Amino acid sequence: MPWFLWLLAAAALGAAEFFTLTLAFGLLAGAALVAAVVAGVGIGLLGQLVAFALAAAAGVVIVRPIALRHMEQQPLTRDGSDALIGKRAEVLQEVTATRGLIKLSGEEWSARALDESLVIPVGAWVDVMEIEGATAIVYPRELLP
What pTM, to 2 d.p., does this model score? Predict the structure, then answer.
């Protein structure tokens, strides 16, 4: 098979990868490129098919699991309100199970206590345990184990 047909196959598989984002078509496109190189060197159809099959198998068996493992990892940095979880804040208005006000990262946030039986006084330091909408769920620092 002429090398340019392998390049057309690689382009078609690359386009399919673009629309599906499954990684499988991209690996097959890479295998088609390997077969195009083999065809360009002058090796016959059987050699081209063997090169295509070996490259595709190597991609599916070796490359794909590694790529999927990297895609599943959580990002190292948190952003938005998730970045505030675990931060320390100062109580500006008494925090109860239903209401309160804290100073968190230089801003005032509405807050409520994680433990509904606690009343956290003004001036106490708290840790942000969760963020629910625009309300920080907090727990006093001195009660942490």
Answer: 0.52
